[in-house]
Amino acid sequence: MRAGLYIHFPFCLKKCLYCDFNSAASGADARRDYSALLLREMELRQRALPEPVQAATLYFGGGTPSLMDPREVGALVEAASRRFGLEAGAEVTLEANPGTLTPESLAGYRAAGVNRLSLGIQSFEERLLTRLGRAHSAREALAAFDAARRAGFSNLSIDLMHSLPGQSPLQWREALARGIELAPEHISAYALSVERGTPFAGLLAAGKLPLPGEEDAALMFEATAELLEAAGYPQYEISNFARPGCASRHNSAYWSRESYLGFGAGAHSFWNRDGLGERWQNCDHTREYREAIESGTIPQREGEFITLKQAVAESFFLGLRVLAGLDLARLEAAYGAGPLSTPLAEVARLVQSGTLIREASLVRLAPGAVILANSVFSRFL
After folding, report:
1. What pLDDT score does 244 carry?
2. How many separate domains does the chain show?
């Protein structure tokens, strides 16, 4: 079985005001021995799998994985190779907060086997970084990028966010221009999403979060593809742009419903042996995670077996995220014509309205409809 590997590191220096990921601010004591728990979980999971795994990607996400000691990262990369057949030349990504990086840690990550770095820059404006609750400055972001290049990283991704409180379309265009000047291989450009339970949600409810209006948000969305594609970063997914050959291999596997194994507190997994798949999640709380591992138990909640109807729906709304489009002939070969009849009727309506484009068996979002992507995806749920 080919499967991607994901390692979740749920610790941060501070919790960003918009973040709803399974993460929390913590000191060094809370993080102690976490990598040892991950190594033990990898051992337990390997024993429980029904067949061996060959992994083409390994992704360290969080949280702030760049708080990990490079020696811990190296031990986890080695375990991924030994237990899950991590391929030579595999894409090994580490998410990093610019304020946590040093030339020494960057050199250590490279020596440990990390070959792709994802820098959470988010903004180049100090006032916006402060408003987001980020734990780094614009100066630190630029210094971290330069240090990563000096450390030998030739595959760098940066994250930028738009539609932020108090941000104008002109300021977003300036942010994109600064990102382009850095010349990373990959740029993820996201619109801020205010999620339930976050401090931002409370501020919004209290009328204290001055978000841009719909027209300005649309202008920022449209400027993203305009400027990045003109600079040599084709859009390959709703929020992701890359130089040719530099798309995220790990994330692309998610959108293709390929198998992946997640390790760490709150990590998700998807095991697709039959075209339908099984999904499960580890317990969220680090204390429960630790207790399960120390007792020799996989820290997994009850899983879910995906039905045929669910698998078809996921294939459509995940496949249409990718700008290259979805191959309907491949889906029919996998699931048969009958289960596709309802979503294909929806495709026909969306083609008629100009929202989707169909060319033979390939269907994709029309260029002008990418901004409507979420409403399109909801039609297939």
Report:
1. 97
2. 2
Phi, psi dihedral angles at 127 (to 5 degrees): -65, -35
DSSP three-state, residue 356: strand
**Per the domain annotation, does 291 fall within a domain?**
no
Terminal Cα distance for the chain, rounded: 28
Predicted local distance difference test score (pLDDT) of residue 319 = 95
Q: Rounded distance, CA 365 to CA 356, Å?
A: 5
What does pLDDT average to over the chain? 96
pLDDT at 22: 87
pTM for the structure as a whole: 0.96
Q: Which domain holds residue 331?
A: 308-378
- pLDDT at position 30: 83
Torsional sign, CA 76, 78, 80, 86: positive
Residue 26's pLDDT is: 87
Question: Which residues share a beta bridge with 162?
Answer: 191
In a domain, 264, yes or no: no
pLDDT value at residue 24: 87
Long-range contacts of 149-152 (CB under 8 A, 24+ apart): 150/103, 150/106, 151/103, 151/106, 151/107, 151/109, 151/110, 152/107, 152/110
Between the alpha carbon of residue 116 and those of residues 57, 65, 73, the distances in Å are 11, 13, 13
Model pLDDT, residue 9: 97
Report the half-sphere exposure of 199 (CA within 13 A, side-chain side).
9
Same domain, 225 and 82: yes
Beta strands in the chain (DSSP E): 3-9, 11-12, 24-25, 57-62, 91-96, 116-122, 156-162, 186-191, 235-237, 240-242, 259-263, 268-271, 278-281, 304-305, 326-327, 356-359, 362-365
Same domain, residue pair 335 and 227: no
Q: What is the largest CA-CA distance in the chain?
A: 59
**So what's the pLDDT on residue 20?**
87
| pLDDT computed for residue 28 by the predictor | 85
Q: Rounded to an integer, what distance in angstroms lies between the CA atom of residue 61 and that of residue 265?
A: 11
**Amino acid 108: pLDDT:** 98
Residue 170 maps to which CATH number?
Answer: 3.20.20.70
DSSP string, 51-67: S--B-SEEEEEES-GGG
Residue numbers in the chain where pLDDT is lower than 70: none
Residue type, 215: E
